[in-house]
Every structure is written in structure tokens, then in C-alpha cells.
């Protein structure tokens, strides 16, 4: 019998089919995904969700961080920046690095990855992918939201999505909104059930939802904290998808202004507890469709 890492569960259908991996808790304080993974696991074990084909893998990404209700197992630790050759093959021995090495083979083997997240500041729900392909957009249609965000690996490296894409799979991240809002777990379950049926893993309605024409954005630039410090301008940095126009004041580094480079939006503004010199405090994105 194959030995699985801690907090990973896997079931095989009676015939061959796609392999789907569902992550919750890559960041331990993002509870919506953890709740959904636990719900799916209970239903498979109880027989109320049965596999018709393929392989379903469910995983709690960072069990120690979930236990501590923290983003990582220690300050500034981020499991979702460690799925890169340099991190996986390097000499690091942190909890997150070891965990990334345990999870990487599962990610590489998946045909489809659904990585469930939430944001540390208020946000509407949205989808995030590394690559913009017809297949990514097709599978994203199962999730109910009005926005998609494409994040190149060069901007945010080492994510689960980038790793599965690099190995020939399709990576989809769903951000359910603010971490303290658990109201969308039911919507997320409907989306995952629909995708599993569409991919042939479970019985059910295999209809692809219509294309709802959601807005798509591309992240192009990182706002980095340096030794000068940083402060968001009044009213800025409070939530994802804050709009701006060229020349708008986003914040200041010491006495230097940080101005908006184009018509776009601010995404992933960080809470101060996550600020670290050399790391992002937010990102600029522009609409692409």
C-alpha cells in the first residue's frame, strides 16, 4: 500500500481517469478550504460521495499552521512559495520546506489541482491561475465569482499552481474572500462537486457552466517593502481589487511616493504582521479582458 504524507487521503475509482488533488490549509489560518476538505473526506468515507473513475486526493497543506491558526508554522513562513526547484532541491530544513518536499510528488502527478485559499484583508471571491489557457478558463467556470487573476511565476514564484502547471497539469486557486468569512463553503462545495462530475470522477451533472464573462486581470508588478519603510496612502491597502488610475498615490517609501503606473487594481495588500523587508506589501494588476 502506498504510504501518504500526514493529513493526505487518497481514493481510486474502479476504472482509470483523471487525478484531482484538492488542497485546503496551505496557509493555516485560511479555514474555508480546510472545512471543505474535511467535509469531502467525511462524505467519501461515509459512501455518500463515491468515485466512478480516476483518483481523488484530499490534503490539508500545512497541518502545523492549521493547528496554530496561523499562516505558517512560524512568522513569515509561507509554504506556497516553496514549490520551486531551488527550494525543493536546496538545503532548507524548515517545517514548510520539508512539507513542500512531501507534497510536491502529489502535485506533480495531478491532472487538476484545486487549491482553496482566503485573503487576509477583505476581498470579493476570485480565481487565481498562473497560466491563461482555454483549459484553465474552462475549469474555472465552476466557481461563482466575478474576477480572475493571472499571476506569473516570475511575480509570485513557488506556488502549488505553478508547480502542477509545470508538470503538465492544470492549477486553479480559489480565493473565497476574507479569512473570517466562512459563508462560501457551500458554494465552494457545489463548484468542486460539479468539476469532479465534469471530469468523470463522480456521478452527477457533468454539464459545463456557461461562460459568464468574468473580468480577468494580470499581475504585473510587486510593491516591495525596503529599508525606507512603507505606508499606504489614506484609504489605500484596505482590500483587494482597489481601483486606481495612472499617477494615483498608492503609498510612500520614506519620503518617496509610490504612484500607480496605469489604470488597474491593487491586489493582495498585506496585513502589517506579514510585512518583511524585501517582500511584497501588495501587487499591481491590469485588466486584460
From TrEMBL:
Q: Which GO terms describe its molecular function?
A: hydrolase activity, acting on ester bonds; metal ion binding
Cofactor(s) needed for function: Zn(2+)
Taken from the UniProt entry, a GO cellular component term is: cytosol
Q: Which domain of life is it from?
A: Bacteria
Succinylglutamate desuccinylase/Aspartoacylase catalytic domain location: 17-184
Q: Which InterPro entries match?
A: AspA/AstE_fam (IPR050178), AstE_AspA_cat (IPR055438)
The record's annotation in SUPFAM superfamilies points to: Zn-dependent exopeptidases (SSF53187)
Keyword terms = Hydrolase, Metal-binding, Zinc
> Is Magnesium given among the entry's keywords?
no
Q: What protein does this entry describe?
A: Succinylglutamate desuccinylase/Aspartoacylase catalytic domain-containing protein
